[in-house]
Design goal:
This protein is α/β, with parallel strands linked by helices. It has 13 helices and ten strands. The protein has a seven-stranded mixed β-sheet, sandwiched between helices. It has a three-stranded antiparallel β-sheet with strand order 1-3-2.
Length: 309
């Protein structure tokens, strides 16, 4: 019965490709997705099927779940597994796997160097933040407060805004544990902020826009609360095809065209736009970009009005 089920499971071409890959190296879901080009929901389904048959095992490592082959030569199914592994690689999966493992090793080596005394990115971030001016900052869509806590280390005051009461409770607990008293919390919709949100020197939108129905409305609200000359920082995802993020993570948009967001920023009155895309990570289907902009100073706005007149 077990052998028959294994034959049936490996009769699916995608499932067979996945088994070959995890037989060669421990891989997480995102890595498998990047290698075979199938939606994450489908990959998760195939992995669950292989795990139910005890063909693969899973283990947690560094915050990820990794999958590997669970069958060895003592298993009655081993000849079938060996035959599957030795089959023709018509999709070029092994070549892509070799490249992925090379990039993984490069990142691992870099991370080890950064763990040397004085070489930590976190320490460098703390050192650089000490040079920043003390500003009033709003964290739009603060979630559980991870970024809020980092902002609070150098800001004069942080206003953390989120429409989720549960998320705000987590943020409050996090900031309390860290002893940060320079943070206030506002429960409200980013598209129409409640009254009483103070004027800000800086507004940060870190992967918040893809959770709202009307991103342009959020940008207008950011412009409204910023002081003249205030700055906006937007970190968002490039367009992608991972539709599973909508039902599972509550995303309302599958990323954004950066140039479309630039147009929306200009329509909201922002100037001095700067776009910085991040390098593509072959192990992830997602790629981010950074947009910064300024609200015009009063003199600049007055000059623009006079020029139009």
């Amino acid at each position: 019965m077990e052998l028959s089920e294994t034959f049936s499971a490996l009769g699916d071409p995608t499932r067979l490709r996945i088994l070959r890959l995890v037989a060669s190296a421990k891989l997480n879901v995102s890595e498998v997705v990047s290698l075979i080009g199938v939606a994450q929901s489908s990959v998760s389904h195939h992995l669950a099927k292989l795990k139910a048959l005890e063909l693969i095992r899973e283990e947690r490592q560094g915050g990820f779940t990794y999958y590997s082959l669970a069958v060895d030569a003592s298993d009655a199914r081993w000849p079938l597994i060996r035959l599957a592994r030795e089959g023709d690689d018509t999709h070029g999966d092994q070549a892509r796997l070799t490249e992925l493992l090379r990039r993984r090793e490069d990142r691992h080596t870099l991370n080890e160097r950064l763990l040397e005394p004085g070489q930590s990115w976190l320490l460098w971030a703390a050192a650089l933040s000490s040079l920043l001016p003390r500003l009033d900052v709003a964290d739009f869509g603060c979630g559980s407060g991870v970024l809020t806590a980092e902002l609070a280390r150098w800001a004069r005051h942080v206003t953390a805004v989120d429409k989720s009461a549960a998320a705000l409770e987590q943020a409050r607990a996090r900031l309390a544990r860290e002893g940060r008293g320079n943070v206030s919390f506002v429960e409200g919709d980013l598209e129409a902020l409640p009254r009483g949100v103070p004027r800000q020197d800086l507004v940060v939108l870190s992967q918040s826009l893809h959770h709202v129905g009307d991103p342009a409305a959020v940008l207008r609200e950011a412009a409204r609360v910023l002081v003249p000359g205030g700055r906006l920082v937007v970190l968002e995802l490039m367009p992608h095809r991972e539709a599973w993020v909508k039902p599972r993570l509550g995303h309302q948009h599958l990323g954004f065209d950066p140039h479309g967001l630039e147009s929306a920023l200009r329509d909201s009155g922002f100037v001095d736009l700067q776009l910085t895309p991040t390098p593509r990570d072959g192990g992830s289907p997602f790629r981010a970009f950074l947009l910064t902009a300024s609200r015009p100073a009063r003199a600049a706005r007055r000059a623009a009005r006079e020029a139009r007149a």
